Every structure is written in C-alpha cells, then in structure tokens.
Amino acid sequence: MNLNALEPFPRLKTKRLVLDQLVKENVRQLLEITSFNDRAKTEEELDQLLQTIAEQQKGKQGVVWALYLDKEVIGTLGFYRGFENKEGEVGYVIREKYRRQGFLTEALTEVVRFGFEQLELNSISAYTTDYNHASVLALEQFGFIKTEMHSGIHRKWVMLK
After folding, report:
1. Cis omega before residue 8 (within 30°)?
2. 3-160: CATH class
3. Which ranges in 1-154 belong to alpha helices (H)?
4. Strands laid side by side in the 123-128 sheet
5. Cα distance between residue 136 and residue 110, in whole Å
6. Are 157 and 146 contacting, i.e. CB atoms less than 8 angstroms apart?
7. pTM tops 0.85
8. Calpha distance 15→51 (Å, rounded)
C-alpha cells in the first residue's frame, strides 16, 4: 500500500477531463451533486462536507476528485472509508446533464489505474443498488464482480488486481 501517492494531491487527466481537488468556488455545481444523495443541500452543509473530505484526505483515509470539463465541475469520484486490507471503495456522482456521455467510464478508468498502480491496492469495491441500472452496467463493463454482500440496500461489487 502506497499512501504517499496521495501527497501532493494527485491531479489526474483523461482525454476530456481533469480530476482535481474540490474547491468551494464551485458551490452551485457541487450542491447539485451533493444534494443528489442528501449529503449536503445548503452552503453550510457543503462547507461541512468539504471539511470532512479535507480531513479524510489529510489523514490519508480517502481521496475525492472533482471531475472538471473545462472549468465546470460535472461530478465527483473518489476512494472513501479508508484502505483497510489494501481495498479502496470507490464512489461517484455525475451531474444529470452529463450522464450517458462516457464521462464516468473515462474518469473511472483513470482512478482504477491510479488505485492499482499508484496506491498499490489489491482490490477496489463499489456499492450500488440493484435498481441503479446505469451504475450496475458501468461496474459490469469495468469487470467488477457482483457479490452477495450488502450494506443496507446497496450491494457490494469488487474488482481484483
């Protein structure tokens, strides 16, 4: 496991996107993303969420990228909840008007590469509901394997190195 790969903040690039730190200047775009899953619906809640993310990153317990298309934040993607047993849990949200255009595939390809090559993870997991067909399809296309493990209504999917 190579947590040194998280310092300085790992800026990643794809053909169309730059994956970089979340900044408060993108409040309107971030609130559209964070309100989607009830994580933050107000600027005050967003400030708290950004502080939690910063603390997680400082403690090397996770990393969250903003997905920038030009200068606009179109989504977030990151590793959450630590790296126990050399496993990274990936999570993502794409703003509605940018879905089904290949942006998640493009960004997730780079984050999975970073996870295995730079962080030296042995596995990457993701959780989604069985009825989130777009997410299930994306995970299947990436080679994630559906498991019988659940966290509430979310099923665990795993990709091995």
Report:
1. yes
2. alpha beta
3. 27-34, 43-58, 103-113, 133-142
4. 12-13, 18-20, 63-69, 72-80, 87-94, 123-128, 154-160, 145-151
5. 19
6. yes
7. yes
8. 30
